Amino acid sequence: MRDILLFLDYDGTLVPIKKAPELAVLRASRRRLLERLSRKAFVCIVSGRSLADIQKLASIKDIAYIGNHGLEISYRGREWIHPKAKRIKPVLNNVLERIRQKTGDWPGLLVENKGLTGSVHYRRLAAPLPKKLRDITEYEVQLRSGELKLTEGKKVYEIRPNVDWDKGKGVQELIRWLDIKQPALRIYIGDDQTDEDAFRALDRHDISILVGKRQDSYASSWLPDVAAVWKFLGALLPMIVPPPFKKHRDRGSG
Ligand SMILES: [Mg+2]
After folding, report:
1. Number of domains in the chain
2. Closest to 199 in 3D by CA, of 245, 166, 240, 159
3. pLDDT for 95-141, tens place per residue?
4. Which protein residues have their CB within 5 A of the ion that is ligand 1?
5. pTM of this prediction exceeds 0.70
6. Which of 2, 104, 129, 220 has the fewest CB atoms nearer than 10 Å to its CB?
7. What is the dihedral of CA 111, 109, 151, 60, to 10 degrees?
8. Ligand 1 centre and the CA of 234: distance in Å?
9. How many CB atoms lie within 10 A of CB 162?
10. What are phi and psi of 200, to 5 degrees?
């Protein structure tokens, strides 16, 4: 049997998107399901959040985590940070501070510094998104376009180091760490525009699942919402050949 590598986006995939990012906590029963899955398959949570944040929120031991859209990876005590992104940190801090200064009195706006990237969340902004916010963010990022770039998520502007790196490249980097003898089946589930990079990094023998609908997605299949993702994961669990069977089979052939 092929090994299964399961890559799961977090917000909008494992938890519904909350107005306050800190409220997106995993339910205990769902955490247990992921723990059980991780004993039969390789499990990795992939997020735009910082590594520290996503590890704390998901709070599952012995699985892999990819944070900051692929720029940070942690697995079994090994930690990796994209070297160029690390060098750009002071520039990012400065740009986020300037955006904060220009928007400080806007109720509901959250400018979040995630270490290697920044997020300007406007989900809780009382008034409809003022064009001014986009203009300010674009302007400030443009001033440092050699180091930074702007991308858009769901009700959020993401300010990221201008490096050729994304969730897909993070996934590929992590797979290189694993000692996999034969081609594994990779499953990636995600809802965001940034997950498209990971969908693209897979090939036709893998399974890419978009949560929700989007036109022109690279995903090969889709699920309607977070509840459907958990139904899928629950159905997947008993289907994976448990390790004792694998050991038995290995003995038989050797
Ligand atoms: Mg997401």
Report:
1. 2
2. 166
3. 999 999 999 888 889 999 999 999 999 988 877 677 899 999 999 99
4. 9, 11-12, 191-192
5. yes
6. 104
7. 60
8. 20
9. 18
10. -65, -30
Domain boundary among 112, 139, 161: 161
Q: Which of 134, 161, 188 is the last residue of a domain?
A: 161
Active site residue 9: yes
C-alpha of residue 191 to centroid of ligand 1, in Å: 5
| CA angle, 82 then 87 then 91, to 5° | 125
Residue 57 near residue 26, CB atoms below 8 Å: yes
Average pLDDT estimate for 195-210: 94
Res. 23: pLDDT tops 50:
yes
Tell me the chain's radius of gyration from C-alpha atoms.
19
CATH number, domain of 35, equals 3.40.50.1000
Quote the distance between the C-alpha of residue 75 and its chain's center: 15
The tokens for 62 are 């012995």
